[in-house]
Amino acid sequence: MGKNLTKRSEDYSKWYNELVVKADLAENSAVRGCMVIKPYGYAIWEKMQAELDKKFKETGHQNAYFPLFVPKSLFEAEEKNAEGFAKECAVVTHYRLKTNPEDTSKLIVDPNAKLEEELIVRPTSEAIIWNTYKGWIQSYRDLPILVNQWANVVRWEMRTRLFLRTAEFLWQEGHTAHETKQEAIAETEQMNNVYAEFVENFMAIPVIKGRKTESERFAGAEDTYCIEALMQDGKALQAGTSHFLGQNFAKAFDVKFTSKEGKQDYVWATSWGVSTRLMGALIMTHSDDNGLVLPPNLAPIQVVIVPIYKGEEQLLQISEVANRLLSNLRSQGVSVKFDNRDTHRPGAKFAQYELQGVPLRIAIGPKDLAKGTVELARRDTLTKQFVDTDDVVSTVTSLLKEIQKNLHQKATQYRDEHITEVSSFDEFKEVLEKKGGFISAHWDGTIETEQKIKDLTKATIRCIPFDAKDEEGNCVYSGKMSKTRVLFAKAY
Questions:
Q1: Where are the beta strands (DSSP E) in 155-192?
Q2: How far apart are CA 69 and CA 91, in angstroms?
Q3: Longest Cα pair distance anywhere in the chain, in angstroms?
Q4: Is this model's pTM higher than 0.90 or not?
């Protein structure tokens, strides 16, 4: 597993693609635009999944599973949603193949096996779920419904990149039903906060919470909240979204309930989701020219122990110490691997674990045995120290916390240094070209201005930050009055 990564400063996109493959996270598959997530990459996703799942259950949600296929008529029921996803839909039209009479080694679609109604492979599940909820909801006593689904979805992307944009990807999608508008808005806010807390504390990625503009909203939503992160190349990445759907889907699928007062009303709805794009965010926020850098909370292996030895006798002596450390560290909840493979030299192992972002590496050789020490190397700072064997457990547990904190601080400093306030369009374009990052600028609130800026610069409004201060000014493009600044950036 040779490193030889392209440097980030030379070609950030190439560096990213190489790193995903060389660190054994994922690879392109035989299916155009789809990826194979390899065991090491999937182990990181599983840790994300486990932590998020815990948070969902703590906030009263339950997991369910809904069909992969959505009948076309159901998909069309909510017009804005159907229109928003139409160009990305994969459609099933037939249900059987048959042997080609001209070449029996080949298969063709059986024209007699055409579906009565075409099926959409879900790009998102609102349609099938709200059609299902119609049978679950009659009265206010049936509310709220707080359901989450872990699933795969298909959006037929033409230009793909591993984790960031693939035709099929993994995600979770929450779909909730409520009695009142206030309750649904509170749910939307709560889940956006759950995402922010997870990404900040577990992934060590600082985020800005805000709401999307009308043109950037989820198709079929009345309001979309989001968390936006900044990658090392100065581009933004949407790390999670939470949508207040109003009564749009309830009206489309005729989902009504009888209130406490005996009146009939439409249900209020939310949906929210994060996907394997978070893997891309993780890689692009922390990693360096030597490979992955993983926050300890998400590292499948937090500590690796590598023996340095000549001959069987030295290996046995080192293994005794290594296995004791392994046992003691695991008893403290630390995930540890003892790599005693005799097929790889220590240098090759060091290179592999550096590339794969293992937070801490312990090396033990004969000299260490004699001194009663081990060599401890940090992945985030690439620094080394010698630690007494008796102090390894306490040192490791405190260092893992320190690394987690350090990665968050480093990413926050970069992000904060790359939020630039501008007051003219010339300044806007110059900052975008030369510095990148988030540009804080006044906007007149019109879709026309937003589109014009996007056409001219490729920058979009990432969010209207919740903590944006009231500040009158002039729109950076049109010069019209504006009451607050918004954040623009080029984005993934």
A1: 168-178
A2: 9
A3: 83
A4: yes
